[in-house]
Amino acid sequence: MFEVTADKIQALDSRLRKEGRVVIVSHEHPDGDAVGSTTALWHFLKVKYGIVARIIYPDCIPPSLAFLTECVDYMTADDEGAEEAIRDAGLVFCLDFNNFPRTGRLQQHLRGSAAFKVLVDHHPFPEEGCFDILFSRTDISSASELLYCILVDMPGIGGDAGRLPAECARSLMTGMTTDTNNFANSVYPSTLRMASDLIAAGVDRDSIIELIYNSGREEKLRAWSHLLDNSLTIMECGVAYIVLGLDTRERFGLLEGETDGLVNIPLRAAKVRVSALITEEKDHFRISLRSRRDIAVNTLAGERFNGGGHPQAAGGRISVPSDLDDKKNIRQYFEDIAARFMRDADTTRDK
Ligand code: 5GP
Ligand code: MN
Questions:
Q1: I need a surface site. Which of 12, 176, 212, 289 has the fewest CB within 10 A?
Q2: How many other C-beta atoms can be found within 10 angstroms of the C-beta atom of residue 85?
Q3: pTM for the complete prediction?
Q4: What's the rounded Cα separation, in Å, for the pair 149 and 41?
């Protein structure tokens, strides 16, 4: 496991001993790592410090992750009291994001808050000046894994996963599972050690898999099949993309999170090196990017899609009309950017 510096652990512990007003936040469109890490911390604080923290997400969580929030006190940015809770907090934990713009509607509240802020994150380039304690590493599978390293080092745990509250351990395992695409990507020796320790501590991994991957609605399966059949384009340069329009979302009644994972599927074809899922929203498109190991898509996300992320999993947005004049031109707009990106990537590699 990673050594988490003892002085940071001590600073955190002493804050928690004198501060009861604790808020935990994560990024927009919370995924398994966001919900896993935040709920894990919530359970830990409750059992080990007697603190009932308040989790605040920028927007709603996918139904497939609702099992993690069953007995947890959480709200979303639109709920009454969210702004006030952040304003009144003495301590704010920021999990699984590296800068405030990633928190969407919570951004202004967080910037305006005088609370002591602790970052636990695994993205490159954290906005260091915004946080009082930074736990930030990129050579790790997930924020959940980094949080695990911190929690097992806290007083009274002694490195023993068996001493973590059971719900905390289950949430950590969920976050790590989804961020590694069920242990297919970003797996480090530390990742497998943590998973092994959590299973030994009693986490039921099979039930987590059932809940997050095998409890979907039939409509979701039909929608994926429809999209792969009708909307998948594989370009000569090795970029595959799917455009998910509002009409298709409505037709299949797609719920939040029901296309999570779809972007990975085109990479199963040998010729595909980069895969994109472009999801239409009211006044913009959201874009999810995945790539093989020899191509970094976080630079593409940062330079062309106002986003960022990890080398092999990144995302951003295309705004209408500031980036793209008319939504109907989305395919051509994306293809031009993708073709140039692949040309540049190949030229750089050939040098
Ligand atoms: P996903 O494709 O699962 O939505 O996101 C994959 C990764 O891309 C996330 O873990 C995050 O690091 C990054 N990401 C997604 N959307 C955005 C965005 O709008 N801005 C930034 N900076 N990163 C994003
Ligand atoms: Mn993450």
A1: 12
A2: 21
A3: 0.96
A4: 12
Residue that has been written with the tokens 């030229």 in this structure: 347
Residue 37 and residue 120 in contact, taking contact as beta carbons nearer than 8 Å: yes
Please choose from 288, 299, 319 the residue to mutate so as to test ligand 1's pocket, defined by most ligand atoms within 8 A of CB.
288
Strands 274-280 and 284-291, bridge-based pairing: antiparallel
Q: Which helix (DSSP H) or strand (DSSP E) does residue 8 occupy?
A: helix 6-18
Alpha carbon distance 152, 207 (integer Å): 23
What is the mean pLDDT of the segment spanning 163-167? 98
Q: Residue 346, class by beta-carbon neighbours within 10 Å (0-12 exposed, 13-18 middle, 19+ buried)?
A: middle
- Lookup result for tokens 């004198």: 18
Query: Cα dihedral sign for 31, 129, 146, 114?
Result: negative
* Interval 201-213 mean pLDDT: 98
Ligand 2 centroid – CA 61 distance (Å)? 15
Considering the chain, what percentage of its residues have pLDDT values greater than 70? Answer: 99
Is 102 touching ligand 1 by the criterion CB < 6 Å? Answer: yes
Q: What is the DSSP letter of 60?
A: P
Q: Is the pLDDT of residue 194 over 70?
A: yes
Q: Kindly give the number of the ligand 1 atom that is closest to the alpha carbon of 310.
A: 12
* pLDDT class of 5 with cuts at 50, 70, 90: confident
Q: What is the C-alpha to C-alpha distance for residues 315 and 306, in angstroms, rounded to an integer?
A: 8
Matching residue, tokens 């993205």:
123
Confidence (pLDDT) at 111: 95
AA identity, residue 132: D
How far is residue 87 from each of residues 90, 165, 174, 239, measured CA to CA in Å?
Answer: 9, 29, 30, 44
